[in-house]
Amino acid sequence: MKGSSDIGFVGNIGRRFLLRQQYPLCRKPLLVLAMLTVLAIFVFLQYSPVGVSTAHRTRDELGPGPAAAPVGMVGLPERASEERRHVAPVVGGGIYNAVSHKRLYIPERRYVHFDLKGAPPKVSYMKQVFPLLREAGANGLLLEYEDMFPYEGALTSVRAKNAYSKEELGEILEAAQQNELEVIPLVQTFGHMEFVLKVPDFRHSRETDEHPTALCPSRNDSFTLVTNMIDQVVALHPHIRWLHIGCDEVFHLGYCSRCQQRDREELFLSHVTRVARYVREKHKRIPIIWDDMLRQISVDKLRQFSVGTLVEPMVWTYVKDVYRFVSYSNWATYGEIFDSVWAASAFKGAFGETLTVPNAKMHLENNEGWLEVMSEQHGKFKNFRGIVVTGWQRYDHFASLCELFPAGLPSLILDLLVLTNGAYTNALPTRFHSMLKCTHSRTQMDLESDPFLWQKGYGCFFPGSAVFRMTQTHSEAIKKARDYLMDVTVSKAWLTDYNIRRN
């Protein structure tokens, strides 16, 4: 059976060969049509723009809009490209964002927040840091002065003893301009006004006398105080487009006798919109506010006060799961009310009021979480302006210091590289080491075993690196002291509270 099968097979082949010799291909229209179709597709893909990889096309060819963004922005982005939304493909698998074939969103503005209400950096230090921030992909600054601004006149008592002079402030702004970092000043105008309300001259403007945190919006002199602050800040920032007026965490609202007669939401919105109108009408600037006080307010109430035409919200949360605190319904509301919106993440000052060094792993996860949310939500808005990476020096004006800026710089650089690239890639550690002038082996990062970047950053020599290394020394000393106390008081039972009391 096997032999006959083979003979039949050979015979079939021979017959097919003879048929092909007798009947040319033109007698096979379906085969010819298929071959011509394949050839046409090949030629089309070879010479048509459709077949050109976006990685090799110019930005002009890509055109405007989300799909027209520069691709794989690992290096320093061009200034001109930042006036449009950015969507780029992931260049490699990330340690936390492991999506390898998904197009991710690159925010057009990547600003760094300087919280100056505790251990403010010297001007000379800022001049060293600004070029590094720009190299990492930052293109702007959010400067929160508090009492470091050189207030004068009726506000002289507000300024700190070590406040920047007008000349020093001018140097900071000049250095920012030289590094193409656009500046947005932040003036608190409602909550977190401890630095003003603690001063005896302005005690009467508190919402509650025992808590110098929030301004009473029902007093006329409160508005005078706020506008005086705004006027002085804008006067020394003549080229700004935006002014951040704070308005977050107004915890004490509706407590005084006059405010108790009004609805709390209306109290908040009436004050915010009054200040915003002042900024727009007198100074022709766009006011920004933190969004947290808006999250529970209805669309109808927001429309009633025309909030969407007056301010741009800066949506902030510092956790990995952004939707945990800013829900889908919040985004739906914001999409109905606002044409433009900002995001705010953190590189330090968010996971413990007494920390000395930030957990870079948690902050990276927060920024990667924001990349995903911006990718999903930017279509709801005419302008998704960008993201501000915040770095809090302390939780409020009366709190102790948390991570200092130099201790958080490695975390900041890592976050900026990821935001500028659209995802964590295997190329980023090399750039990280180069920018921070690290001398040791450039191996891949392992934030699971090194969440504070002590192993990666110990041999680096960036501005303030000695402070960063000191945090590790401090942490080790604290651990040794605690281990010793545990050993002699509990583990070996010699110096327990019981023994001390009884002996």
From TrEMBL:
The keyword Transmembrane applies. It holds the Pfam family Glyco_hydro_20. GO terms for biological process: carbohydrate metabolic process. Residues 131-298 form the Glycoside hydrolase family 20 catalytic domain. InterPro entries: GH, Glyco_hydro_20_cat, HEXDC-like. Keywords: Hydrolase, Membrane, Transmembrane, Transmembrane helix. It catalyses: Hydrolysis of terminal non-reducing N-acetyl-D-hexosamine residues in N-acetyl-beta-D-hexosaminides. The chain crosses the membrane at residues 30-47. CDD domains: GH20_GcnA-like (cd06565). The keyword S-adenosyl-L-methionine does not apply. GO terms for molecular function: beta-N-acetylhexosaminidase activity. Its EC number is 3.2.1.52. Belongs to the glycosyl hydrolase 20 family. PANTHER family: BCDNA.GH04120 (PTHR21040). This is beta-N-acetylhexosaminidase. It comes from Ornithodoros moubata.
